[in-house]
Amino acid sequence: MLERAITGIRGTGHRVVNGVWRLGYASRFFLAVLLHSSMSFRRFHLTIKEIYFSGVLSLIIILVSGLFVGMVLGLQGYETLQKYGSESALGTLVALSLVRELGPVLAALLFASRAGSAITAEIGLMKATEQISAMEMMAVDPIARVVAPRFWAGVISMPLLAAMFSATGVFGGYLIGVVLIGVDEGQFWSQMQAAVDFRQDVMNGVIKSCVFGVAITAIALFEGYDAPPTAEGVSHATTRTVVTSALAVLALDFILTAFMFRGL
Questions:
Q1: Cα separation of 1 and 255, whole Å?
Q2: Where would a tag sit more exposed on the chain, N or C end, judged by fewer CB atoms within 10 A?
């Protein structure tokens, strides 16, 4: 019994130490990415290539998901507002829901699932096939050549994808509310325009999406770079990227929302 307790304590201590070590290594890795970011801007074609990989190839899932989320918001919002005789406020409900919360958060979760997992798998396979080691032998810094362009591509792509998600969602709400149900088009757009504030609503959504882009891309890059050079290691790293990114997005959304509402 005593040996089992000692083994459990030893295992818990090992996991705690390993977690602290990984956190410190991740912090050093993130700092190294920032210090080597100049190459991403001197050779911007590398970043443009990664923007296509991370952002453009994620457009389909972002636009389709945004359209259906907006349509669902239109249906649910109309059913709720109708009980209070406020159907004309449907545009406000759809726009504020998307711009403040659903747009940045859902776009970030989709970005982590599509682009984040792909980045982790790509870098993990580069490590497994010794391409990273080959760069180091040729005196090419893999952080500057491989990691930094992907980091800034994710940071640039995430706000743009979130904005497209929100715009497509508003269009989906318009299709359901105005075209299908018959809400007055003028009231739909005029109340939306009057209620949505650029600084408090739109800019807060942009800030959230930028923070989410930094977190997701940094997690994806670190998990890929730290993955064991085996098929199983890359597989587990890809899974950790999606899970950790989703939890980070939701936690950061709560923290940012608390600060933003406090500043209103």
A1: 43
A2: N
